[in-house]
Amino acid sequence: MTAAIYAAGAVCWRVVDGRTMILVVHRTKYGDVTIPKGKVDPGETLPQTAVREIHEETGLAVALGVPLGVSTYPLSSGRDKIVHYWAAEVSDAAIARSTFVPNGEIAALEWVTIKKARTYLTYERDVEILDTFAKLLAEGVSTTFALIALRHGKATPPQTWDGPDSTRPLTERGVHQAASDAPTIEAWQPRKIVTSPAVRCVATVAPLAASTGIVPKHEKRISQDAYENGDADVRDVVGKRVRSRKSAVLCSHGPVLPEILREIALATGTLPGSYLSSAADLETGGFSVVHLSSTNPSSGIIAIETYSPAV
């Protein structure tokens, strides 16, 4: 069987004079109207691809929002193309900074209403993705922020470490996991990094801190030591992040992650379920992206994405 081609993109949107407008691109080569997207480059993850392709095609720097689904369709070569989509709200600042000029790939950009986009887009599969976004808009939860629950990278086993548990360092594999996580997490443009003060957690967020310029906050109340000693206060830490309504990373330990996911659910009025356990059951270096409404966090968890480390 011939390998599929993977791609990623986003429904880029903004509000103009009280109306939600969708960005469509007029492609030079194909003479069609579509949603911005592009193929995965070697070594990229799908979220990285979506952000990069939108910037390359439209000149817009965006943060990803809620996942909108996947389109799969055959190409003339006989291979399948599998495209993952997210929502991406475009800020006025991003518009002002856009460097787009017509080129050999994209002839023009156009902002249109959802109603017009439904009849304007060339492909029905694009309309289906648009309709998923329209449902979020109708429910009043299109503007979102993300809380990213990150498990530290692979650390030196406790049985081979003589010092306190909190001083166990990352292994070589853990260092690579931390480095590979950073560019993917950046796709959601976190504004805050909160980490257990354990060495293995601090080292895991170090590459992300370096690339974003964010100084991590060391928070004992989500550490494994505090959890085991009965001194943890995950509720207060998570509650503060929900109240801030800004995307943030919470880096912690395997035993603490279920509490973090549970408290996110409780803080947003979300019904409990096995999906929370699945989102918390992360391998070292893995993370779950929990999407919440910025305008009404009590509307519950909108979506959860879970990612394994690349290495």
Protein architecture, described:
The longest helix has 15 residues, at 124-138. A hairpin with a 5-residue loop joins strand 5 and strand 6 (80-89). This protein is globular. It has ten helices and 13 strands. Strands 1, 2, 3, 4, 5, 6 and 7 form a seven-stranded mixed β-sheet that branches. A six-stranded mixed β-sheet has the order 10-9-11-8-12-13, with helices on both faces. It is an alpha/beta fold and 311 residues long.
Q: What keyword list fits this structure?
A:
311 residues, alpha/beta, seven-stranded mixed β-sheet, six-stranded mixed β-sheet, 33% helix, 27% strand, globular
Which sequence of SSEs, written as H and E, runs from N to C? EEEEHEEHEHHEHEHEHHEHHEE
What count of helical segments does DSSP give?
10
Which runs of at least 5 residues are low in confidence (pLDDT < 50)? none
What distance lies between the first and last C-alpha atoms, to the nearest angstrom?
Answer: 26 Å
What is the radius of gyration computed over CA atoms, rounded to a whole number of angstroms? 20 Å
How much strand content do the residues show? 25-35%
What does the overall shape look like? Answer: globular
Class per helix and strand makeup: alpha/beta
Overall number of strands: 13
Mean pLDDT: 96
Task: Give helix % range.
Answer: 25-40%
Largest sheet entry: 7 strands, mixed
